[in-house]
Amino acid sequence: MSTSWKDIWNEKDRINKVILDFLIKADGFDGVGAFDVEDWIKYTKYLYNLIGISSKDKVFEVGCGSGAFLFPLYLKGIDVSGIDYSNQLIDIAKKFLPENSFSVDDAADISKLEKKYDITLSHGVFFYFKNLEYAEKVFKNMVSLSKHKIAILDVCDLDKFDKYHSKRIEKFIEEGFSREEYEKKYKGLNHLFYDKNWFLDLARKYNLKANIVDQNFQNYGNSELRFNVFLEKNC
Ligand SMILES: C[S@@+](CC[C@H](N)C(=O)[O-])C[C@H]1O[C@@H](n2cnc3c(N)ncnc32)[C@H](O)[C@@H]1O
Question: What is the DSSP letter of 121?
């Protein structure tokens, strides 16, 4: 319990939650995909457990943005780093996470990195890719950068494609906008949807053990439209 005002203003936990809230927003988790900090902490913990991240692991994220997904790991003392093609978001990551561990890069260009990581992951990124050919290039890069595990998280599920727009429009209208405003805002901004078999085929091609689980987090509006892919190198 705090004993003075000075203790209150110095309280690390409060400040870290304020930072995390900012990172979540900077990384675009709003609208249907909005998260509050407490839910984000529970959600990321649920995914860290599914991946099986241990305290000694070195974790690298492709499309890390401002570092919202990595921040709770960083606070636990885990070695985290990443790349993103947004220099604005990488500037934020460098401010709140270890400065030298983040760089601006396109996900398809990371094959030049020399260091290897225990785990390479990518959360909420693969649906921004232009096509499956590009996505396979990134997949291959993630496999070669990883010593053990690869996790591709929050992937748009092709089986749920029909639900996608109706759910987003519903939320948009709930927030006081019209269907026309939705169509105008998102014109030409499509998401790439994936068949689970596409990942299973790649796992076979690259000799990886694969486990795919539907996203299952109650307070995340996109949960029912997404799945997570967990891969492991066969020894
Ligand atoms: C929804 S944000 C998720 C950020 C972070 N992974 C997280 O969960 O907090 C999607 C991120 O993917 C990045 N991104 C999308 N396509 C990319 C690409 N081709 N190369 C690198 N970064 C990319 C965006 O800049 C953005 O930071």
Answer: E
Rounded to the nearest 5 percent, the helix, strand and coil shares of the chain are: 50, 20, 30
Is there a contact between 122 and 62 (Cβ–Cβ < 8 Å)? Answer: yes
Q: Whose CA is nearest to atom 2 of ligand 1?
A: 27
Say which residue, 10 or 152, is predicted with more confidence: 152
Q: Which residues of 147-172 are buried (b: 16+ CB within 10 A; e: fewer)?
A: eebbbbbbbbbeebeeebeebbbebb
Instruction: Give the C-alpha separation, 35 to 49, whole Å.
Output: 19
- The residue extents of the domains of the chain are 5-233
Give yes or no for a contact between 67 and 82, defined as CB atoms under 8 angstroms apart: yes
Pocket test for ligand 1, best of 125, 191, 228 (most atoms within 8 A of CB): 125
Mean per-residue pLDDT over the chain, rounded: 94
**Alpha carbon distances (Å) from 40 to 43, 72, 76:** 5, 9, 15
* Ligand 1 atom showing the smallest separation from residue 122 Cα: 6
Using CA positions, which residue lies closest to atom 16 of ligand 1? Answer: 128
Given this structure, which CATH class describes domain 5-233?
A: alpha beta
pTM of the model: 0.93
Q: Token pair of 234, please?
A: 């066969």
